[in-house]
Amino acid sequence: MTGAYDHLITIFSPEGKLYQVEYAHKAIRSENLTSIAIRGKDCVVAVSEKKVPDRLIEPDTVKHIFTITPHIACLCTGIQGDSRMLVYKAREKAAKYRFKNGVEIPVSYLANLMAGETQFFTQYAYGRGYGTCLIFFSVDDEEGPQVHKVDPSGYTAGYYAATAGTKEVETMAFLEKTLKLPERGRNNSVKDSLRLCLQAMQGAISRELQGTDLEVCIATRDDTCEDGFGKLQFMSAQDIDNELTEMVESGGLTEYLASRQEMDREDTN
Amino acid sequence: MTGAYDHLITIFSPEGKLYQVEYAHKAIRSENLTSIAIRGKDCVVAVSEKKVPDRLIEPDTVKHIFTITPHIACLCTGIQGDSRMLVYKAREKAAKYRFKNGVEIPVSYLANLMAGETQFFTQYAYGRGYGTCLIFFSVDDEEGPQVHKVDPSGYTAGYYAATAGTKEVETMAFLEKTLKLPERGRNNSVKDSLRLCLQAMQGAISRELQGTDLEVCIATRDDTCEDGFGKLQFMSAQDIDNELTEMVESGGLTEYLASRQEMDREDTN
Amino acid sequence: MTGAYDHLITIFSPEGKLYQVEYAHKAIRSENLTSIAIRGKDCVVAVSEKKVPDRLIEPDTVKHIFTITPHIACLCTGIQGDSRMLVYKAREKAAKYRFKNGVEIPVSYLANLMAGETQFFTQYAYGRGYGTCLIFFSVDDEEGPQVHKVDPSGYTAGYYAATAGTKEVETMAFLEKTLKLPERGRNNSVKDSLRLCLQAMQGAISRELQGTDLEVCIATRDDTCEDGFGKLQFMSAQDIDNELTEMVESGGLTEYLASRQEMDREDTN
Amino acid sequence: MTGAYDHLITIFSPEGKLYQVEYAHKAIRSENLTSIAIRGKDCVVAVSEKKVPDRLIEPDTVKHIFTITPHIACLCTGIQGDSRMLVYKAREKAAKYRFKNGVEIPVSYLANLMAGETQFFTQYAYGRGYGTCLIFFSVDDEEGPQVHKVDPSGYTAGYYAATAGTKEVETMAFLEKTLKLPERGRNNSVKDSLRLCLQAMQGAISRELQGTDLEVCIATRDDTCEDGFGKLQFMSAQDIDNELTEMVESGGLTEYLASRQEMDREDTN
Amino acid sequence: MTGAYDHLITIFSPEGKLYQVEYAHKAIRSENLTSIAIRGKDCVVAVSEKKVPDRLIEPDTVKHIFTITPHIACLCTGIQGDSRMLVYKAREKAAKYRFKNGVEIPVSYLANLMAGETQFFTQYAYGRGYGTCLIFFSVDDEEGPQVHKVDPSGYTAGYYAATAGTKEVETMAFLEKTLKLPERGRNNSVKDSLRLCLQAMQGAISRELQGTDLEVCIATRDDTCEDGFGKLQFMSAQDIDNELTEMVESGGLTEYLASRQEMDREDTN
Amino acid sequence: MTGAYDHLITIFSPEGKLYQVEYAHKAIRSENLTSIAIRGKDCVVAVSEKKVPDRLIEPDTVKHIFTITPHIACLCTGIQGDSRMLVYKAREKAAKYRFKNGVEIPVSYLANLMAGETQFFTQYAYGRGYGTCLIFFSVDDEEGPQVHKVDPSGYTAGYYAATAGTKEVETMAFLEKTLKLPERGRNNSVKDSLRLCLQAMQGAISRELQGTDLEVCIATRDDTCEDGFGKLQFMSAQDIDNELTEMVESGGLTEYLASRQEMDREDTN
Amino acid sequence: MTGAYDHLITIFSPEGKLYQVEYAHKAIRSENLTSIAIRGKDCVVAVSEKKVPDRLIEPDTVKHIFTITPHIACLCTGIQGDSRMLVYKAREKAAKYRFKNGVEIPVSYLANLMAGETQFFTQYAYGRGYGTCLIFFSVDDEEGPQVHKVDPSGYTAGYYAATAGTKEVETMAFLEKTLKLPERGRNNSVKDSLRLCLQAMQGAISRELQGTDLEVCIATRDDTCEDGFGKLQFMSAQDIDNELTEMVESGGLTEYLASRQEMDREDTN
Question: Which residue intervals define the domain Proteasome alpha-type subunits in the entry (chains A, B, C, D, E, F, G) (predicted)?
Answer without folding.
Answer: 5-27
